[in-house]
Structures are given as C-alpha cells and as structure tokens.
Amino acid sequence: MLNFLNTTYKIKNVLFVLPSLSPGGAEKVTINILNHINKDKFTVNLLIINNIGPFKDLIFDNNINIINLNKKHARTSYFKLVKIINTIKPDIVFSTLQHVNILLLIFKRLYKSKPKLIIREANTPSQFMGNLNLFKKKLFLFLLKTQYKKADLIIAQCNEMRDDIISTYKLNNVDNVITIYNPIDVKFIKNKSTDFNPFNDTYVNIVSIGRLTYQKGFDILLKSISIVRELYPNVFLTIVGDGELRNYLIRLSNDLNIQNSVNFVGFQNNPYPYIKYSDLYVLSSRWEGFPNTLLEAITLNKKVVSTNCKSGTFEILNDYENGIIVKTDDPVSLAEGIISSIKKEIKYSEKYKKYDATIIVKEFEKYFLNNINCKITNLH
Questions:
Q1: What is the H or E stretch that residue 111 is in?
Q2: The domain containing residue 266 runs over which residues?
C-alpha cells in the first residue's frame, strides 16, 4: 500500500521542455499551461535549453522548478537532457516544437523512469514541409515519421491540423492524436490591454503582430495596404514584432510609397493595447498552427481579417461575426477584406471564453492524468 501511495505522489511529476523563452506561439502556450496547471495535482518542472528571451517575465507562478541547460542548440544538449530527465524522473515529458520533439523521442529508451512522452505540434506539417528545400524536407519527414510513432500522445491545435498530422506522418494509431485548442490568459490580456493607447485616433488604425518571417506574409499585407490607401488615405498600419525580414519589409514599404502609413514598432512586452485600441486586426499568414493573435484579438472584441491559411483560422472565425476570411497569398483579396471590415459595424461576442486558459488547461490535465493512469496499470 505504501508503494502505491508513493507511486501516486511521484506520478504527478511533469517536465515541460522548451528551447528558449523567445517570443513565439508555442512558448506562450506552454507558459499559459505552466501558470494555470493545478499545482495540487502536479509537480511542475520547466527545462530550458537556452534561458534567453523576454517571455521569462510571463511566468508568474513561483512553484515551478526551472532548469537551464545553457546550451545554444537542442542538438548539442542531448547528454545533459537525458541526465536531467533521469535525475528528475518525471512521469510526463511535454514538448511542443518539432526539433525538440524529435530529440526527446530519439532518446526515449534511455529514460530510466519510462515517462510518457506527450508532444504538441506547433505548425501544420504539410505547409511547413512545403517551404523546405528537398534535402531538408526528406530528412525531416524521415525523422518525424519514424519518431512520432513513439509518442504516447500527440496534441494538435485544431481539427484541421490533426488530420494533416495523421496524413503527413502516415500515423496508424489515429486515437493517439487529439485536438486541444490553445489556452489564452483572458484576465491577463484584458488587464494589460488598457495600459496605454498607442494610436492617433484620426487614422484608421490597423494592427498585425508576429515574427517578421516569410510565413507571416507581411509582404502581402504591405501590398494590400497600398491598395486600401486608394480608398482610405488615412489608413495606418502598425506591425508589432521583429525578425529576419525587417529590413526587407521596410524597403518594400518604401518601394510601395507607403512608408508614411506604416510603423514597425518591433517586439513589445505588452502588445495588447495595440490590439485593444486598433480599428482592425489583420492576420496575413501563409500558414499557421492555431494563431494565438487571432484568439487575443477576439478576446478584445476586435474586427478581424485573416487569410484562410492552414490551419485554425476557419475554426476560430467561422462563427465570429466580426471576422472576415480571405484568400491566402493574395494582396487584392486581403485589401478587399480590409475595406469590407472597415465598413462593418462591430458586434459584441463572447466566443473568446471557450479558449480561456482556466478551461483549456483542464483538458491538458485530463490527458496528463489519463496517460499517468495507463502507466500505473502497466506498472502493476
């Protein structure tokens, strides 16, 4: 009886693994789980391969054991990673980015406590793969197809992504792939959104948030703004975020002669006032997982225009009256959506409530405990 009680205590031990705390959707989701998971049920550990990034300020709960490997890359950290896992002896290891997922699965046999490996997919695989060169695509597909079969549970961010994971990775055990929507911290977002007003109200203020990368389609957004300006000369676009394409996008705005109608404000620790006080939020991505910024925009009851990118946008906006979905990679379609949205009257919506972290994190807890209970059964 004592052994069973000790096992019951130990099985509440969960290890979350992240490469860093740099700004990103996967990092934000993990932090929301960390902050809201029931600490009476779970002992929570966070292993960070490189403890850099401003998101560390978003971890509010002091009851989290944070371990920093101080390594530059995941691929050079596997010895330390295995050692930490064998020291902590978690019953659940949770990871949410592909390269870390692969690394953890490759070394699964070396974990002495035989933890359940639960991995979450951060992007829609077919779209992500489509933008790799042939060598990388073949290598990634080989690793993902062979390693993801070892996962005890795979979490997709939406149903469209779940179907894509199963077909792209040729997974036979479809019951092992589930959907849990991204959790958002509704209370935190609403509280922080009124900290300041960044806008001049004489403009039609449009906001978009994200890393300045090809995936996010900001080049398409800039081209659409040059079209919208013909009808609305007072339109003003604010882009929140940093990335490798910053200089290119600034040059593009100059080439389009819209440099006086665009502001690149870089990464912001608190982006929510930009959404709150805008007239319209735009997501111009070529592909996504389940875009957190759309969830944040509907939390603040904003009008939204989004490309119909894989995946998640349709599931978020299909019954949101303030949302418009347009073609992907099409500046004209995006411009038409923006013009239509500017003309629309905003309506009050409570759709955001279904994504509240206080609700969604309970789903994660349920599946963590289900996998732990399977482990108890196997041990006995």
A1: none
A2: 187-354
For residue 159, give the amino acid letter. N
In the chain, how many domains are there?
A: 2
Q: How many CB atoms lie within 10 A of CB 67?
A: 16
Distance of CA 252 to the CA centre of its chain: 27
For the CA atoms of the chain, what is the radius of gyration? 22
Check if the beta carbon of residue 99 is closer than 8 Å to that of residue 76.
Answer: no
Burial of 192 (0-12, 13-18, 19+ CB in 10 A): middle
Q: Is the distance from CB of 229 to CB of 256 less than 8 angstroms?
A: no
Tens of pLDDT, residue by residue over 353-367, are: 999 999 999 999 999
Please provide residue 281's backbone torsions phi and psi, each rounded to the nearest 5 degrees.
Answer: -105, 135
Whole-structure pTM value: 0.90
Which two structure tokens, joined as six digits, stand for 10?
A: 């130990």
Q: Look at the chain and count its residues.
A: 380
CATH number, residue 120: 3.40.50.2000
Distance CA(285)–CA(217), nearest Å, equals 5
